[in-house]
Amino acid sequence: MSHWTKTKAKIKDLGTLERTAKELGCTVQKGVSLNSQWAGAVDAEMVLSYTDKSGTVGVAGVVKDKNGEYVMQMDEYYNPIVEVIGVGAENLMHGYTANVVRGQASQIGFVSGEVKLENGDLEIHITI
Question: Whole-prediction pTM value?
Answer without folding.
Answer: 0.82
